[in-house]
Each structure stands twice: as C-alpha cells, then as structure tokens.
Amino acid sequence: MLRFIISLWASKLCLFLFKHTGRERDDRPGILALRLCPDFLDRVKKPQLVVAVTGTNGKTTISNLVSNILNLEGKKVAYNTWGANYKAGQARCLLDAVSIFNRPTKDAAVVEVDELLSYKTLPWIQPNYVIVTNICRDSIRRNAHQDLIFSRINEGVSKLPNATLILNADDPNSSFLGENNNKRFFAIADQHADVFETNVSDFPVCPKCGTIPVFNYRHYRAIGNFYCPHCGLKSKTGDFIGTKLDFDKREMLVKEKDGEFKYPLVSDTIFNAFNIMAIITLFRTIGYSPEVIAEHIKHIKLPENRVACEDLGKIKMYTFSAKGQNVSAASTVFEYLAKEPSKKELILLLDEHYGDDPNIETITWLYETDFEYLKNENIKKIIVAGQRYLDYKLRLRLAGIPVEKTVCVFDEQTIPDYVSTDGIESIYVLHDVTTVLRAKKIKDKIKEKITNQ
After folding, report:
1. What are the pLDDT digits (tens) for 82-128?
2. 124, 362, 406, 421: least CB-packed within 10 angstroms?
3. Residue-range domains of the chain with CATH
C-alpha cells in the first residue's frame, strides 16, 4: 500500500508539472506510476462510469466520440485524446481521474485498450462497458492473427462478470466474444451496396466446423451477415440495426425494440457508420434517449488525427489515417477512395519510422492489401515516398496501375514538387498512425504551393 501511495503522489506531481509546461499529451506520468507500483492500474480508484474500447480498428475514433458526448452531457471525463492504449497511457488516464488521496475526481473515464494486451489490462481497469470495434487482419509482427486477438480479448472479458459488452453483430469474429457476459449487439442491414472483392481474409472458415462460410450480404471485407451451410452457425441478431443509411444527407434510421429513430452520421464512410452504431448502442444501453443521443451526435466530429479536410477553393485536401502494415484498415480506405467520385491525387505515407532505424516492418502486408482498388479512373495520380518506395513501386505495378499514374521517390520532402492540380478536385494524404506529424508537414507544404499558384 505504501508503494502505491508513493507512486500516486510522485506521478500526480509529475502530471501537474507536465500540464503546466505544455506537455499534457505525454504518457510519462503513467510510466512513472507503473515503475513505482507495477499494479497501479489495479489499485487506483475508478470513476463511477468506465468505458473501455478495444478491437483492431476504430478504437481511437470511438473513444474520442464517446468522450465528447459525455462532455456534452456535462460530465467530467478522463481520456487520452491522442490514443495512448498501452498500460502507461491507461495509467496516465486514470491518474487524471483521482485526487492525491485516491478518490475519484471525474464522473467517467474512457480507456482505450490495446487488443493484444487486453487480457491483462481489462481485468485491472474493471470497466462497466466494453466496446469491441472489430477483430480483423492486422500487422503480422504486432498482432499475428485474428484468432489470437479473439482469444486475448475473450480471456480479458471473461474476468469481467459485471461488464456489458457492446459488439458488432456484422463482424463474424468479435460478435462471438464473451459467452457468459451481458451483451448488446449493433448491426447495419443490407444496403445493397457495390462491395468490392478483396484479398483480405478476415473470416476464411467457420470457427465451429471449418467450412467456408456464405455471406447473405457484405458491407466491406468480411463485415456483413453470414451463415455456415454445414453446421448452421450464423451472424448474431442486432439489438440496434441501422436500416437505412443516407450518406448524402448524413443521416440514418436505426431500428430497436422501442421503434425506429433517426440519427446523424459524422462522415460518408460505412466504417464510420459502424462507429456511430457502437456509440448509439452504448448510450442507449446506459439509458439515454434517442433524441438526446441524436442531438449530441450533431455536435461531435471525427478526431483530426484520423481524418481532416481543408477547402482550398477549387480543391479539397484531406489527411486520412490508413494504418500502414494493417491490411484491413488500408484496404477499407482504398475501397472508399475508389468509390468516392471526385477526381483525386493520392499521397501514401504508410511506412513506419522509429527515429533513424532503417528496419521497417515486413512488407508481406503490401501483397495482401487491396492496392488493385486504386486502379479506378477517378484516381489520377499516386505519389509514394519513404524508405520502402521501391517496394510500393513494385506492388503498384503488380496491381495493374499504369506507370504514368505513379510517382515513387525516396525523399518525402520532394512530394509537393510532384503534386499537380490540373483537373483535380481533391488531394488525399494517407498516413500511418505513427506518421501524423510528417503527414501534416507535407500537407502544409502542398497547401502553400496551391495557394501561391
């Protein structure tokens, strides 16, 4: 106990100094807390409401949106807006939610949880609600295989007998989590969309009998409604179902046991519609009315480190997180860009960089990701830069993308030199989560070039 008290006081002092020296977005107070007391996460008191968010893709987006809605409700919320989801970030988050006497000072905490470590951290955090966004193909080196991630999350939630899981019924992997937990499911009905075929194998066989599953419909990749023709295993039924999505009006109808209600959408992407469905399901389960939730969604927006747009007159410039080394995230973004009708140029900044370390992750993910989607006629040019530029050059050739549509260079600083605006309506800078600042610098240089023309 004495060790925890020393850890709490020392790390609270560290947090105070960091906040008052412009370094609030820093995990080092959490690192200090864990070094002084390794079981800090277990010992620190939690607010009355704790929401944990885990899964492969969408954790930071959903965590931000949940936190924003709680703030709009007048709640004091502890949350790391920059997506720190390892133990140090979680300790930093919960450290901000207690006094030096270990008494809760916040009404709620929204804790982003790394899916690979969830089996350890979820039991320490003891959330009231766990949102699992999805489980799908990710980095081979970091997360190995989706079955491993399923087992890790399942082990974690099995130790939370009082928690309610918020699960995506249209995800054939994560929807079968938590056999003994309370669960609420969300889904989106068949929108009769033109869904591209994919290289990404998120759900190759039935987990019960090994038979190849059949999909009644898909929204993208393996997100959709399936059944097994051999053993009869099938998708879960949603408690909250998005019945009609209107991306032009940015709204959707959601059916539940109490009726059908209209909610706003925060973007024109199907994957963000699923994020909004998760949020609706969470707050309806907590007890908020559809009207209150809908009103709050009108006033929230996607985090700028995931998607941002600037209107430069005749051209719109976007920065868009596409998660390098993550085949499911990159392929989903590529499909969206192929379908988005504007005439565009793409800039790919998907290499992972750690200082001057030239050892960037295995390139096998390039050959599972659907670069073939980028052959679409509305994509006029693709610019790639970074240490792996030659690997991208080869992959683009194998995808059938004409050589005259691509520019592949080593030096990222030269990217603006290759950007042209003739006949272009939009420019997308796609970046990895580790390259947000680099992408912003490139975007600012391109913006300067365009405004000076």
Report:
1. 667 888 888 989 999 999 999 999 999 999 999 999 999 999 999 99
2. 362
3. 2-297 (3.40.1190.10), 307-452 (3.90.190.20)
